[in-house]
């Protein structure tokens, strides 16, 4: 999968998530304001709890909307072996055991996984530990992530 396809897939997934969460927030809001949620006594918190759920879903929908706007406005950059890693880089990493990992450095939606056949691509952000470690590195550089115990060392195999 190339970067253009990755970007389109991220936009599609975020748009679908936004649609689902917006509907969930509407449903939760309707439940919170429904006449059956009017408290019977001072200990009945059904309506209050439903309003918390509605607010949480609305907040999450707003975060996804913001991420979706960021990805729609994104301009993909070209990279070669000597270009330092920055936003929009697609980086292939190899750990000390020879296991490969593909990451896309994006502005939002860290942790989003994209699968294409047998290949998996993970969106990371510059704020993540791996994202911070990758910024400014080039092909064949090593990056260390984690504390001294359990530290993971990756070699940058490819940047596009």
The proportion of strand residues reads: 15-25%
Strand order, main sheet: write it out.
3-4-2-1-6-5
Q: Give the termini distance in whole angstroms.
A: 11 Å
User: What percent of residues adopt helix (DSSP H or I)?
Assistant: 40-55%
Helices, by number, come to 3
Task: Provide the structure class.
Answer: alpha+beta
Give start-end ranges of low-pLDDT stretches.
none
Instruction: Output the helix-strand order.
Output: HHEEEEHEE
Q: Give the strand tally.
A: 6
Regarding quaternary structure, how should these chains be classified? single chain
What value does the average pLDDT take? 89
Whole-angstrom Rg: 21 Å
**Can you tell me the overall shape?**
elongated
Instruction: Quickly count the domains.
Output: 2
Largest sheet: 6 strands, mixed
Which descriptors apply to this entry?
2 domains; 160 residues; Chitinase A, domain 3; alpha+beta; six-stranded mixed sheet; elongated; 3 helices
Explain briefly what this protein structure is.
With 160 residues, the protein is α+β, with helices and mostly antiparallel strands.
């Amino acid at each position: 999968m190339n970067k253009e396809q990755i970007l389109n897939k991220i936009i599609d997934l975020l748009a679908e998530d936004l649609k689902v969460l917006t509907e969930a927030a509407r449903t939760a809001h309707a439940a919170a304001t429904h006449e059956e949620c009017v408290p019977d006594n001072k200990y009945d918190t059904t309506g209050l709890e439903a309003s918390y759920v509605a607010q949480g879903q609305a907040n999450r929908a707003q975060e996804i909307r913001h991420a979706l706007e960021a990805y729609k406005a994104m301009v993909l950059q070209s990279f070669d072996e000597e270009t330092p890693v920055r936003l929009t880089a697609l980086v292939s990493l190899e750990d000390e055991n020879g296991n490969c990992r593909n990451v896309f450095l994006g502005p939002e939606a860290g942790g989003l996984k994209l699968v294409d056949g047998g290949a998996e691509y993970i969106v990371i952000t510059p704020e993540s530990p791996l994202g911070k470690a990758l910024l400014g590195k080039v092909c064949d550089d090593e990056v260390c992530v984690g504390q001294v115990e359990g530290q993971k060392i990756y070699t940058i195999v490819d940047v596009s």
